[in-house]
Fold this sequence. Notes:
Layout: H1 14-26, H2 29-36, H3 40-54, E1 59-62, E2 65-68, H4 70-91, E3 100-107, H5 108-125, E4 129-136, H6 138-146, E5 152-156, E6 164-172, E7 174-178, E8 187-188, H7 190-193, E9 198-200, H8 206-216, E10 225-227, H9 231-239, E11 244-248, H10 253-257, E12 262-263, E13 265-266, E14 273-280, H11 286-300, E15 305-306
Parallel strand pairs: 3-4, 3-5, 8-13, 9-10, 9-11
Antiparallel strand pairs: 1-2, 5-14, 6-14, 6-15, 7-11, 7-12
Helix pairs in contact: 1-2, 1-3, 1-4, 2-3, 5-11
Amino acid sequence: MPFTLVFLMNKITIAQLQAFVWTATIGSVDAAARRLNVSQPTISLRLKALEAEVGLALFERFGRGIRPTPDGYEFLPEARRILEGMERLSRHAGPQRVRGSIKVGCAEGFAIVCLSQTLELLHELYPELNPELMVATTLAIEPELNAHRLDLAFLVNPTESEGFTLIPLGAQKTSWIAAPRFNLPAEVRPHDLTGLPIISNPVGSINHRQVREWFASAGVVPLRIDTCNSVAMLAHIVRAGVAIGIYPSKMAEEDVGNGRVRLLKTSPPVADAPIYAKFDSRNDSPSVRAFITTVRRVLSQMDYLTEVT
């Protein structure tokens, strides 16, 4: 039977609809609670109250999780329509209506370059918006976003995932970087580095793939690659002259200026790394849009990203 929630909204709360939609979407009360930043018992109580209002069982056990009943599946599109309508209304209320917490993941190199400026502007534009930040490699952040434990992420070359929106921000210039003590030629080729200490992010990361593919372009393999899960520590190790690595050129500006490292001119060059904002398409909320807009404003003032090609 068709549902007409509009006639029940004096009894059904937005919080109950959010609990229902996210539990139905993710298939887990615990995960929905993490997504909405409330306790698991709170979600359970909201679902029970909602079922009492509509007079129907909306969920059933399925393996280790739960799924909507046939009535629940029929209820779901109308519940989403109501929530989407509320979000559209809130967008017209102006920046002062953007409030609450937002869980944001940032690829570390990107964060080092522009996160402090982004937070400063965000505090000015949206004083009631409180970011909860996760900074790591894209390899570590993207699974958290895909599991709905983050609202938004800024990632290097992320994967396309069904149900998620990707917004291109530009391409991050990356380079081989080395301390002067290595006394490398003006133009560096893979054979020049095969016997030298190399450091990268862990296996599976974009950074590690950049390193491997650069050497593979000449059919050679470096003698050893040490790995480090932190881009900041990787840069510190390169700056100390212990190893040579690839990381965002913008991160090295100060060190290049004072002669502590060199941006290596290489053949082949290291490909620029595209940066995207990624979020669940059903969570196109004012908070998500506000954060993305703020990042865009910061990037427009920096000589950092090039156009994605």
